[in-house]
Write a structure and sequence with these properties.
The complex is a heterodimer of chains A (about 650) and B (about 210).
Chain A lengths: L11 E5 H11 L4 E4 L7 H8 L1 H4 L2 E4 L3 H13 L4 E6 H17 L5 E7 L13 H7 L3 E2 L4 H18 L3 E3 L1 E2 H4 L2 E5 L31 H19 L6 E3 L6 E5 L3 H11 L6 E5 L2 E3 L3 H8 L4 E5 L5 H17 L3 E3 L14 H11 L9 H14 L12 H16 L4 E3 L17 E3 L5 H9 L11 E6 H17 L4 E7 L28 H8 L2 E5 L4 H14 L3 E7 L14 E5 L14 H6 L4 E4 L4 E4 L9 H5 L5 E5 L2
Parallel strand pairs in A: 2-3, 2-4, 4-5, 5-7, 5-8, 6-7, 11-12, 11-14, 14-15, 16-17, 16-18, 18-19, 19-21, 20-21
Antiparallel strand pairs in A: 1-9, 6-13, 10-12, 22-25, 23-24
Chain B lengths: L10 E8 L4 H14 L3 E6 L9 E9 L15 E4 L2 H11 L5 E5 L6 H4 L8 H10 L3 E5 L1 H7 L6 H12 L6 H8 L5 H22 L6
Parallel strand pairs in B: 1-4, 4-5, 5-6
Antiparallel strand pairs in B: 1-3, 2-3
Helix pairs in contact in B: 1-7, 2-4, 5-6, 6-8, 7-8
Classes of the chains: A alpha/beta (about 650), B alpha/beta (about 210).
Amino acid sequence: MSRIIQGAPGEHHLFMGNEAIARGALEAGISVAAGYPGTPSSEIIENLAADASETDVYVEWSANEKVAAEVAAAASFAGLRALCVMKQNGVNVASDFLLHLAGGGTRGGMVLVPCDDPGALSSINEGESRHFARLLEVPLLEPGDFQEAKDMIKWAFELSEQIGNMVMVRSVTRLSHASGDVELGKIPESDAKARFRHTGFILDPEQGAMTSAPVGYKHALQQEKLQKAEALFEDAPFNTYTGPENPELLVITSSACHLYSREAIGILGLENRAGLLKLGTTWPLPRQLVRAHLEKCGRVLVVEEVIPFLEENIKVLAAELAPEIGAKTFYAKRDGTLPATGEMNPDHVICALAAIFNLEYRSAPEQYTEKAKLCVLAGAPGRDLTFCPGCPHRASFWTLHNVLALDNREGFVCGDIGCYSMGMRETGFYTLKTMHAMGSGTGIASGFGKLDRFGMDQSIVAVSGDSTFFHAVLPGLVNAVHHGSNFTLVIFDNSGTAMTGFQPHPGLEVDAMGKPAPPLDIAGICQAIGAKVSVCDPFDLENTRDTMLETLDDRQGVNVVIFRQSCALSPEKKGKPRYEMHLDQKVCMGENCGCNKLCTRVFKCPGLNWDEKNQAARIDEVICAGCGVCADICPAGAITKKEAG
Amino acid sequence: MAASTLPSDPFNLVITGVGGQGNVMASRVLGNILTRKGFTVTIGETFGASQRGGSVMSHLRVSEETTWSPQIPKGRAHAVIALEPTEAVRVLADYGNPGVYTLCNTRPVHSIAVISGESAYPEQHQVKQWLRDLSERAWFLEATNAAMEMGNAILANIMMIGALSATGLLPVDSQGFEAVISRSMPADKAARNCEAFDIGAEMLRAADRGQSVK
């Protein structure tokens, strides 16, 4: 149940950052929201979609981020307010369109919300989106807490309409997925009407065609818009200063780092010595505001994540102003005061401040910390990520790993993005050997599949999830078939975008708002492209193995094998085991069986434990999801399955 | 303005466990109870990839004044609720201090390193001793077992919230819990959760009386 439309103006709610952003979009009176799922951004579109029937907002999970940006832009061109949401690397996907959009401008307010993942808590990169604001030459805002996450969205829509261009509002995991206090505002009644005006003179921003050409004229106009934004930033309510009139050190920060910095200053008792300039408008920098603070202090600490974006932009400004305000000493990432990679936290800032002010700081008594560290070493075994109990991917990788061994040609699998990315780790038997962007597994396999002329005779497999297939695999597959590349594409069709919380994709019968939608048939599409297609159930180990062995032997063009089995957490499956599992410890021969503890040492489903006392495997009834696969793995027949009632 | 004062401001609580144990739900429910009482609550949590059988942690900061960093500074937890025993040890190493209160569910969740035999899981009495050594006070509750008796192991997370209410560390009670839970699920499910909350509170009181708890 969603709560973002509930609540009267003035009420305080505990909102996740993403809920605050979604509420802000509703208070801004948006008509359209589009995005592609990706942690930590997904809950923004999810919340808007859940309330769509009551808000009249059109909400969609687009096929990918570029399409999402195009869908949102169309609404803007027709005079409506539109929100576009994605995780950081989605901006890479959308950037070609966004560059042209920023060059041509927008009409109805358009706000792009990228959610970055410093520390790569749920990503395989910690690339960030802020530098896109500079590249695209559009204004950038960064909320510093949950209230701002809501309020800033509304402000961003107004700014977008004032300057006639897209505005970026960048969030990070520690805001998007954190929760805090938000005072609600009013959600306006909607009377939005869409009309795309296109019959005017080509240079007319309100009546002409929408494009970034003629470039000379439009680019200059775009930079004027940016200057206008900078002027508005000078008085923006999101830039605040706390601290003494003439501090010994000026801390400049933005986003969640503002909360870390404030707490660090408090813990070290530096309130009367260090000033905190928290910027909500980080590109272009409000020159006069920053100057006024730089003037009063010779030393500056910049706290941000991840690349030194703010640091470098402030340094450019400081260099330009140096003849008037003097040279400044900077402490930040480039001099090693703060770590260059990973996410920030209060302790990093405390360390930096303690070093600059020459203070001693210890987070807990040394004796305590030493004792606790020893306890962890002795008694908190590592907890590597693993596929959920009952996850089809464990069975799928079991088969892929085994057939490549049987095939015996040093075959390998090109990975892709989703839960199954974990196939690169222990839980997937280290089966994936390349892993890059969405769709890259198929593109890379397409390339490997053409290297036979150079003597490459290894078996090549690519994998893709069902949502990833629609997002970015299609062009790679088209390329491979057209060029006669030889490889097998395995599509893990688990009926949803599982990694991010089960958002629908174009292969399903339902859209983001829960309305019926025509499902696109992955097998039919692959056949139409010209691939040979077969379908199997990865829980049927024997049939899947035979299908894969046959396919690997074919070595003629592109084969697609669809492994169809829905996610263990899918709404239709969750909490409803298919089988009641039983393990007879009298039959399990443990170390004396020739299997070398196949079920626990090798298969490693969390639903199975090794019982030290009885020297036999055992089923953990709390965790087992009843998929039945381990019964087919145990050579001794100790594990049996019975259809659950 | 908040209805009652806190032992410290902010009061820092870590809820930890393994992905799938209901960590996020527990932190949200607790946060909502305290928000309704007028406190300013900040919660930082990690989910997404780490939901898949990894260690998970929610940081709750309860204040009468302001929003705090969504990450508690090292060594500054006032209380830790652990849904899994070895995760309590891991959290105390980073966020613990001699004054911390620890509430620990005793049921282990074996990581794949333990399942495969690469690492050993410590004996329960050993983990208990470590947690006692590292805490001002530690309570051990067989919450998962009690939840299984109720027919659903996941309810252990709610039992631990109930147990926290009985410590008196935070102004949380069964009325506050009921008000929040009944807004987010159907009446029959909410009633089961209230029952779990009360069982958790009673388990803690029994532990305080030195009785063996279920």
